[in-house]
Design a protein that fits this description.
This protein is of the alpha/beta class. The protein folds into three domains: 15-78, Arc Repressor Mutant, subunit A (Orthogonal Bundle), CATH 1.10.10; 88-180 and 319-347, 3-Layer(aba) Sandwich (Rossmann fold); 183-318 and 353-375, Response regulator (Rossmann fold), CATH 3.40.50. The chain has helices at residues 15-29, 41-48, 52-64, 105-121, 153-162, 183-196, 212-227, 245-260, 274-286, 320-335, 363-375, and strands spanning 68-71, 75-78, 88-92, 124-127, 142-146, 166-169, 178-181, 202-207, 237-240, 268-271, 296-300, 314-317, 344-347, 350-352. The strands form three sheets. The protein has a six-stranded parallel sheet with strand order 4-3-5-6-7-13, sandwiched between helices. α7 (212-227) links the parallel β8 (202-207) and β9 (237-240).
Length: 376
């Protein structure tokens, strides 16, 4: 038994979350087995130079999920109910590299929630190659499809026609079982907050609309602007093509620069994802504007660094870990005929207000600033 719980604390992630994730990972890898005793709280804390309170928060979460049990004077033990050990779930995705750790916030959190759900339910998992994803072996009991694209609807329909239990994770698709966040409601909260601060000129940056989440965020952006009778200017709305994370930041920076090059500029920008927000922030500051006094910035996703940036970012937060975990739990219930279909749930996002948004400055002050910048 290897119960050495050593964390990589250099990663920008909540510490209690890292403890929880590490224990789940060790169970999945077989380093910790049912009945194994965990090191005491103080030992885990000392080994990683973190507080006992941080460790306790993680253990309390795992206890609520039924993954560990604590006994007075005996300690804390892995305690798994393997009632679903003969169920095999297949995981399929084009947008997420299933079965390995991801570097960005959303994918890392989603995979962490899936791992916790798998450990909690005691199921087996397998990974389907996307190109061969519709040729399913007979020993698969259900499929978890992670963040499918709008262009992949036919694959979903083929799975549905085969009668294989299916839950779509991370996006909302009518006609299918899904667990997602209410993307439209999240954007409505963001734009409504900007309007409350006095903003009437609001730009938007979105990833490819082939992504369901981006499509719904774009839809929510337009509908909320219409709701408040605000201008919808194509010069203030930019779509970033599908690409890897590093390119997303670079392209978002370019698109934001295009918005800021307009004579009539927005006073606030909404960005629809982690890397888009980072690119927008970089561009705003490079152009000599200050956030939020010159331009307010609000993004979708409370990624790990959001609250540590200068200024800390106002964001729409979604419970990504919960989306993954609930997806596994409900798929098992469908397989066991304990959950009626269609099962469609939209979790509610939260507005987290930080320092990257503020009230609109008076036009006189803004004009003076523009003149000063022109002189330089």
């Amino acid at each position: 038994m290897n119960n050495n719980i050593k964390l990589d604390i250099k990663k920008p992630e909540p510490l209690y979350h890292m403890v929880k994730k590490k224990i789940v990972e060790m169970v999945r890898n077989g380093d910790l087995k049912d009945g194994d005793r965990l090191p005491p709280e103080e030992e885990i804390a000392k080994q990683n130079n973190i507080s006992r309170g941080t460790v306790r928060m993680a253990l309390e979460d795992l206890a609520r999920e039924g993954i560990i049990k604590s006994y007075p004077k005996r300690g804390t033990f892995i305690s798994l109910e393997k009632s679903n050990i003969f169920i095999k779930i297949a995981i399929l995705s084009l947008t997420i590299s299933v079965g390995r750790k991801e570097t960005d916030f959303y994918r890392n959190e989603l995979w962490g929630g899936i791992e916790e759900g798998v450990v909690k339910e005691g199921t087996g998992i397998t990974f389907l190659n996307h190109q061969k994803g519709i040729e399913f072996s007979k020993d698969i009991d259900g499929i978890l499809f992670l963040v499918p694209l709008r262009s992949e609807i036919e694959i979903l329909n083929k799975i549905k026609r085969k009668g294989i239990p299916l839950i779509v994770v991370g996006v909302q698709i009518d006609g299918f079982n899904y667990v997602s966040v209410d993307n439209e409601k999240g954007v409505e909260k963001a734009i409504s907050y900007l309007v409350k601060l006095g903003h009437k000129k609001i730009g938007g940056i979105f990833s490819s609309l082939d992504y369901f989440d981006s499509f719904y965020r774009y839809k929510g952006y337009l509908s909320t602007l219409k709701k408040f009778n605000l201008p919808i200017k194509k010069e203030w709305i930019k779509i970033v093509s599908e690409m890897d994370a590093e390119k997303w930041i670079e392209e978002s920076e370019k698109k934001t620069e295009e918005i800021l090059s307009e004579k009539d500029k927005p006073t606030a920008i909404f960005s629809a994802g982690e890397f888009l927000t980072l690119g927008a922030k970089k561009s705003i500051e490079k152009k000599g504007y200050k956030i939020p006094s010159d331009i307010s910035l609000i993004g979708f996703d409370d990624f790990y660094l959001a609250k540590y940036l200068e200024p800390p970012l106002t964001v729409i937060s979604q419970p990504v870990w919960e989306i993954g975990k609930i997806g596994v739990e409900k798929l098992v219930e469908i397989i066991n005929n304990r959950q009626t279909q269609p099962y469609q749930i939209l979790l509610q996002p939260d507005l987290i207000i930080r320092g990257s948004t503020s009230k609109v400055r008076k036009e006189v002050e803004k004009c003076s600033r523009e003149k000063r910048m022109a002189l330089h």
